[in-house]
Amino acid sequence: MEYRALNPYEFEAWLDHVTHVFSAGRQYFSNHWYNDPWKDFEGIRVAVDNGQIVSTVRVFIRKMYFHGEQITVGGIGEVSTRTEYRKKGIATQLLLDSIEFMKSRNIAISMLHGSQRIYSIEGWEKVDRYIAKNTIIGKEQQEWNIRPINFEDTNEVKQIADLHHHYSRRFNGIFVRDEMDYWTNWVKTESSNMWIAERNGNIDGYVSANRHNGHLNIKEFAASDSVFQDGTENLFFETMISDIITKLDEEKLDIDYPAPIGAGFNAPVVEKYGSTMYRVIQPTAFKDKMQQELSDELPNLLHSQSASNAKDIKSHHIFWTTDGF
Question: Which pLDDT value is given to residue 309?
């Protein structure tokens, strides 16, 4: 068995492999490659037996917000082994191989979505995520022009990119989006149902929402500094959602959204919504302040926030599903 990085000429064979193992279509994996401005063949780790790819792990190279700073992160995705090669330790060996790859790139922390024992054995820790559930009645309002985003308008995309940065850095775990290509390719594909709230030529916030079976699922949200600092984030969030509901020709909808936003912990129902797992790869890659904080347990660090951003929120750990892989 050979463990190594994928060769570029093997990419179509790799697509064949992940499409065979997973239920998602080939286009899904193709999009996640071609729409990724940080893609790297070295980040696709493969196990090859007699010239055939039998297992793979992909490391998505990103940065994420952590206590107001940006740190490098390696997202573990597309972990897949052909049925006849399972329970032979191949996936474990590939995870160890991916850790060495991340160390070679001086990546600070690794994250993944899942809870399987294979990850906890190799050092990834669970950090809970919370979802709020509420019912909002549709109501048209006049203060903002709430409409779908135009991803073809460069100025508009730059405005929401700026909103994303200033709002999302107040939380922990959200991916940094500092490449415009990521917005116009990845975000446009993965979060096409995005609405903006515009007033006097300025965008004060946006929300990405998917309607499904009488529910409105909020994938992500951002509000301007003035809205956030004035303590009216909750009102602004509900105003946007209420107006969107009317535009969807509904009287009311049940909504699900990440609990740390919009005073979600005061919602009628708050539930744990799975978990994200993290593993510190390079403690020395953190700045001095962060090295001291790492003496605390990692889940506590991800739920907490610096005093200037805390705002009495019960958890500051969020991951926008737009960035999922």
Answer: 74
Q: What CATH code would you report for 2-127+276-305?
A: 3.40.630.30
For 45, 89, 124, 134, the CA distances from 96, given in Å and listed in that order, are 10, 11, 12, 42
Q: Is the pLDDT of residue 227 over 80?
A: yes
pLDDT at position 294 is 60
287 confidence band (pLDDT: 50, 70, 90): low
The tens digit of pLDDT for each residue in 47-63 reads 999 999 999 999 999 99
d(CA 296, CA 299): 9
What H or E segment, with its residue span, contains residue 107? none
Strand arrangement, sheet containing 202-212:
2-5, 44-49, 52-66, 69-81, 109-113, 269-280, 125-137, 252-258, 215-223, 202-212, 194-199, 145-148
What amino acid occupies position 190? E
Whether this model's pTM surpasses 0.70:
yes
The residues spanned by each domain of the chain are: 2-127+276-305, 132-271
Structural class in CATH, domain 132-271: alpha beta
